[in-house]
Write a structure and sequence with these properties.
It is a single chain. This protein is mainly alpha-helical. It has helices at about 55-80, 90-95, 100-120, 125-145. It is built from four helices and no strands. Helix 1 runs antiparallel to helix 3 (about 100-120) and helix 2 packs across helix 3 (about 100-120). The longest helix is centred in the middle third of the chain and has 26 residues, at about 55-80.
Length: about 150
């Protein structure tokens, strides 16, 4: 077979457009099902997007989501024992309805955590994701102290 009669399906991949010619865009990072998990060279990974979150980032997102659920549950328990909500926005949501409180709490935390996971290769976002997980851990410690005292 010569180059003229070879079907396009069998042409060498080197003749096709290089998919790495342009970086992963911000919008493609929202999909969470691509193939780019990281970068080969150290300097490439800074301030760039990946299609798939790193395992550590995935664990932080899951941990933060679980902590948010527990925080909402412990807050409702605490309110049942006569306590009050410290966050004024969440206090307003609670004055409207418990459902609004839970939706607002879970939605805000989920959107912020997801956004930080998308920006995992940006240093400040990576630090913020760790800070958010640690902050929720501290909130759960405070809830535990209030609950058991």
């Amino acid at each position: 077979w010569d180059a003229m009669t070879t079907p396009t399906v069998f042409r060498e991949r080197r003749q096709l457009a290089d998919r790495r010619a342009r970086p992963t865009s911000f919008w493609s990072a929202f999909r969470f099902h691509g193939r780019r998990r990281g970068f080969r060279r150290a300097h490439e990974g800074r301030n760039a997007y990946v299609d798939c979150p790193a395992p550590r980032v995935t664990l932080l997102v899951i941990f933060t989501a679980l902590c948010s659920v527990l925080d909402a549950l412990f807050t409702l328990l605490h309110l049942g024992y006569g306590g009050s909500e410290a966050n004024p926005i969440m206090a307003w949501a609670l004055s409207q309805s418990t459902t609004l409180f839970v939706i607002l709490k879970m939605g805000t935390t989920g959107i912020c955590t997801w956004f930080l996971a998308i920006l995992q290769q940006f240093r400040m976002a990576f630090i913020a994701l760790h800070g958010l997980a640690f902050l929720y851990f501290l909130i759960l410690v405070i809830h535990s102290l209030l609950l058991f005292s």
